[in-house]
Write a structure and sequence with these properties.
alpha+beta; three-stranded antiparallel sheet; globular; 21% helix; 18 strands; nine-stranded mixed sheet; 2 domains; single chain
Length: 238
């Protein structure tokens, strides 16, 4: 297996990159803290892997070459189209499309936005989930050294009446994170009956055949051409 792995550093000279929100027990409601790890050495600000992946996906979506999957939101869950053949972020970031039942299922059937998504296989009158392990992975970003977290105050005063005070934190730090991209999994889609590896159901396998993907029956997998796979990887890392 082939991987691209590396370390990246983010210089944050006066920043609050990943906020905790309003901490409990504070004297005021308008207080926002930053996320940090407290140790005996001091406070280490951090950015969660989920937050970084979100920023990266939003940035990639602005690239005219990048093909972004639509997102569908139910009452308690949200998921992408889950079609790695067509959508580059479904390919490289993975997915779990497991629609809910009950009232959510009834609403989906009549929702024109849901009908725009690639259909799922139906078994016993229920949609069958498709999932994909992410070829691209990233760690939590953590400050390379402890820092003094600064508390600052401000007011909202662009209105009649008394100004509204608020309090927030920020820091000066360099954050370090790790990333890894599984090149063998990029642009390669399996149809094994195993969570994380049922990337393609029957509907998507048919699309793979129609699109001319290379079929590896022994490994139960379809692959994009090398040129198509390289194009997606370069767009991610550019």
């Amino acid at each position: 297996m082939s991987f691209i792995t590396g370390i990246f550093l983010i210089d944050a000279p006066a920043s609050a990159l990943n906020n905790l929100g309003n901490p409990s027990g504070e004297r005021d409601d308008n207080v926002v803290w930053v996320k940090f790890i407290r140790t005996k050495e001091g406070a280490f600000p951090y950015v969660s892997a989920q937050a970084f992946r979100y920023w990266l996906r939003e940035t990639l979506a602005k690239n005219p070459k990048w093909v972004t999957a639509p997102i569908y939101r139910e009452e308690k869950v949200a998921y992408t189209d889950a079609n790695p053949i067509k959508y580059w972020d479904d390919d490289l970031f993975g997915y779990m499309r497991a629609p809910g039942g009950g009232q959510s299922e009834k609403k989906r059937k009549n929702d024109p936005e849901y009908k725009k998504l690639t259909p799922l296989d139906i078994k016993d009158k229920k949609e069958q989930a498709v999932t994909r392990v992410s070829p691209f992975r990233v760690s939590t970003l953590v400050s390379i050294a402890p820092v003094n977290i600064t508390e600052d105050f401000g007011v909202m005063s662009r209105h009649e009446g008394d100004p509204v005070p608020h309090e927030h934190q920020f820091y000066r730090a360099t954050l370090r994170g790790l990333f890894s991209l599984d090149l063998a999994a990029s642009g390669a889609f399996s149809y094994r009956q195993k969570t994380g590896y049922r990337n393609l159901d029957d509907v998507r396998q048919k699309q793979a055949e129609e699109a001319g993907l290379l079929h590896d029956e022994a490994d139960k997998m379809y692959r994009l051409s090398d040129d198509a796979r390289l194009e997606r990887v370069l767009a991610l890392l550019d």
